[in-house]
TrEMBL record:
<dbReference type="GO" id="GO:0008270">
    <property type="term" value="F:zinc ion binding"/>
</dbReference>
<feature type="binding site">
    <location>
        <position position="202"/>
    </location>
    <ligand>
        <name>Zn(2+)</name>
    </ligand>
</feature>
<dbReference type="InterPro" id="IPR007045">
    <property type="entry name" value="KduI"/>
</dbReference>
<dbReference type="Pfam" id="PF04962">
    <property type="entry name" value="KduI"/>
</dbReference>
<keyword id="KW-0413">Isomerase</keyword>
<feature type="binding site">
    <location>
        <position position="244"/>
    </location>
    <ligand>
        <name>Zn(2+)</name>
    </ligand>
</feature>
<dbReference type="GO" id="GO:0042840">
    <property type="term" value="P:D-glucuronate catabolic process"/>
</dbReference>
<feature type="binding site">
    <location>
        <position position="197"/>
    </location>
    <ligand>
        <name>Zn(2+)</name>
    </ligand>
</feature>
<dbReference type="GO" id="GO:0008697">
    <property type="term" value="F:4-deoxy-L-threo-5-hexosulose-uronate ketol-isomerase activity"/>
</dbReference>
<comment type="function">
    <text>Catalyzes the isomerization of 5-dehydro-4-deoxy-D-glucuronate to 3-deoxy-D-glycero-2,5-hexodiulosonate.</text>
</comment>
<protein>
    <recommendedName>
        <fullName>4-deoxy-L-threo-5-hexosulose-uronate ketol-isomerase</fullName>
        <ecNumber>5.3.1.17</ecNumber>
    </recommendedName>
</protein>
<feature type="binding site">
    <location>
        <position position="195"/>
    </location>
    <ligand>
        <name>Zn(2+)</name>
    </ligand>
</feature>
<dbReference type="GO" id="GO:0045490">
    <property type="term" value="P:pectin catabolic process"/>
</dbReference>
<dbReference type="InterPro" id="IPR027449">
    <property type="entry name" value="KduI_N"/>
</dbReference>
<dbReference type="InterPro" id="IPR014710">
    <property type="entry name" value="RmlC-like_jellyroll"/>
</dbReference>
<keyword id="KW-0862">Zinc</keyword>
<keyword id="KW-0479">Metal-binding</keyword>
Length: 277
């Protein structure tokens, strides 16, 4: 398991491009028939990916990293499929996962296995996991069952729809909040005007991008911004003190996951455009 440590904002001011990418960017999440995980000391977030091609892949614990016999002994997990149709089996119960379906698995589940329906078009499961203090039921939701919120305008190149899967009004969890934002064709900006939320960290996973497409992900304190160039199917860790916004060379989709003090989606600290530097 890849380990990422927390960074103080004063320290980040001195990071060059390589160090920024080393600390905050997860460049490879999907390797055939392997479970790929990154453990962040920011809110004890685990970010991962699974592409089962030739065989099912189990969700297994790295005992040295999390100090538990099973992955979900003291954790919960959100799973979103960004590939072909597949299945996730949780303690003997199988859930069919189409593209953009979400599955929440609560604390205490022992056996979780990922599979694909067609090896030629394998499922790709993106994972967010956080510590959990109690058990909530395992629940699946298709994108049609998520809570949509239409934002932005064509004038500002940011027409988009936010779909909330795991949140206070949807799938219940201990602290994990998770959803997906789809930008309309011709729109490139996300989350601008930007914000921070000092009570929560966030992770962005960008996908549905062309091979030569990039997103310039903006991070840092509002008056000390930095950027990280992100490519298709890569993720960026955003500490609570950092803005998290971006503009792409074309439209794209991203999954956001949050963890921290509370689950209130609207609990954020808005940043005036005039205060950005």
């Amino acid at each position: 398991m890849d380990i990422r440590y927390a960074s103080h904002p004063n320290e980040v001011k001195a990071f060059d491009t390589s160090r920024l990418r080393e600390e905050f960017l997860i460049e490879q999440l999907f390797v055939p028939d392997r479970l790929v995980l990154s453990y962040s000391h920011v809110d004890r977030f685990i970010i991962g990916g699974v592409v089962p091609v030739n065989e099912a892949v189990k969700l297994e614990a790295d005992a040295a990293a999390i100090g538990a016999a099973t992955f979900l002994e003291r954790r919960e997990i959100g799973i979103i499929n960004v590939g072909g149709t597949g299945t996730v089996t949780v303690d003997g119960e199988t859930f069919v996962m189409a593209n953009k379906d979400c599955l929440y698995v609560g604390r205490g589940a022992k056996d979780v296995a990922f599979a694909s329906e067609d090896a030629g078009q394998p499922a790709q499961y993106y994972l967010n996991s956080t510590p959990a203090h109690q058990t909530y039921p395992t629940v699946k939701a298709a994108i049609s069952e998520a809570s949509p919120n239409h934002l932005g305008s064509q004038t500002n190149s940011n027409e988009r729809t936010i779909y909330r899967y795991i949140h206070t009004g949807g799938i219940q969890s201990c602290q994990l909040v998770m959803g997906m934002t789809l930008l309309k064709s011709g729109s490139m900006w996300n989350t601008m005007p930007c914000h921070t939320h000092k009570r929560r960290s966030e992770v962005y996973f960008y996908f549905d991008m062309p091979e030569d497409g990039v997103v310039f992900h903006l991070m840092g304190e509002p008056d000390e911004t930095r950027h990280v160039v992100v490519r298709n199917e890569q993720a960026v860790i955003s500490p609570s003190w950092s803005i998290h916004s971006g503009v792409g060379t074309s439209s794209y989709t991203f999954i956001w996951g949050m963890a921290g003090e509370n689950q209130i989606f609207e609990d954020m600290d808005a940043v005036k455009m005039t205060d950005l530097k």
